[in-house]
Amino acid sequence: MTGETPNARLNWVGGMIAAIGHLEAKQLMSLALQYEGDGPMFPLSATQLQRSLGLSTTDAIQLSRNLERVAGFREVTARDMRVVLTTLTEARSSRTLEERVEVVCTAPSDLGVPVRATFAAGLEMVRAASSEVLVVGYVRIVRSV
Question: Structural domain tally of the chain?
Answer without folding.
Answer: 1
